[in-house]
Amino acid sequence: MSKDAPADDPMLRPRYTGLASFMRAPYRDHDWSGVEIGMIGVPYDGGVTNRPGARHGPREIRNQSSLIRRINQATGVCPYDLCQVADLGDAWIEKPYELEGALDEIAAFFGDVHDRGITPLSAGGDHSVTLPILRAVARDRPLGLVHFDAHCDTGDDYLGSKFHHGAPFRRAVEEGLLDPKRCIQIGIRGSLNDMDLWSFSHDQGMRVIYIEEFYELGVKGVIAEAQRVVGTGPAYLSFDVDGLDPVYAPGTGTPEVGGFSTLEAQLMLRGLAGLNFVGGDVVEVSPPFDPSGNTALVGATMMFEILCLLAQSRVARVARV
Ligand code: MN
Ligand code: MN
């Protein structure tokens, strides 16, 4: 880098240089002034029911995200031209050994983000972190939801705890953070111990697209369903990498074979343009199970697609005011 290059814009440097921030965006862990979309790491995996490691997700997604360029080739969207985007650092967790305490800390961090009018885009962490994020971004009104996952994550208590990565969306509905009639869950599959495991989703009127129906409907049919179910109101987007086939994303805690592909995921995400997203996350990247780093690259790539959607949504909201 020449001495004259702007020191605060990592985008202008070769992509392999410098400290890794999300997408090489400016790292602003103290000064959030002017930020419109904040990318945030949530390095917490105290809610896993099986293989751990997602606490290492944010750091490795930051590293792999240095491969991502500025413009979405398929849509032409450059999120950095639409919004001020920064890496806000990690949600600070001082009580990692107390699950509910950690969730409270995450909610407090995202409450600050929400108070400043910043749209959050997070990298987990296991899926339990989405509940405290929703406690912040949905505290004014219930949101719709587009949820990619192999699992509905609407289970009940497990081993004596209401809070784990298999239950965030049940708790979010119970707490009035989600409008279940405006929720869609895509890619659901896997063996069960109980055929009624996801009955909460069905009983609440959430739209559940099992992978077999995804296969029948195709990408376009699923996009149409998501647009219909979620409608024009504010919504959240949550992307669990285990929704992808483990061929594409093996580095995760609870892999299930027979999932959608990375390209199908990208096409579905792009098809959600026009929905009114107020936040999003990518969760369950577990670097200890990801020796090639490919799952983290996949996570970073999905994060970029969601960043484009959040920027488009934010611009559309400003235009409406
Ligand atoms: Mn999940
Ligand atoms: Mn899952």
Polypeptide structure, described:
This protein is an alpha/beta fold and 321 residues long. The chain has one domain: Ureohydrolase domain (Arginase, Chain A). It is built from nine helices and eight strands. It has helices spanning 57-65, 79-82, 99-115, 130-137, 168-174, 199-204, 211-230, 262-270, 294-320; strands at residues 37-42, 85-90, 119-124, 143-148, 178-188, 207-210, 234-240, 276-283. Helix 1 (57-65) packs across helix 9 and helix 7 packs parallel to helix 8. The longest helix is centred in the C-terminal third of the chain and has 27 residues, at 294-320. The protein is globular, with a radius of gyration of 18 Å.
What is the fold's blueprint, element by element?
Layout: E1 37-42, H1 57-65, H2 79-82, E2 85-90, H3 99-115, E3 119-124, H4 130-137, E4 143-148, H5 168-174, E5 178-188, H6 199-204, E6 207-210, H7 211-230, E7 234-240, H8 262-270, E8 276-283, H9 294-320
Parallel strand pairs: 1-2, 1-3, 3-8, 4-5, 4-7, 5-6, 7-8
Bound molecules: manganese (II) ion (2 copies).
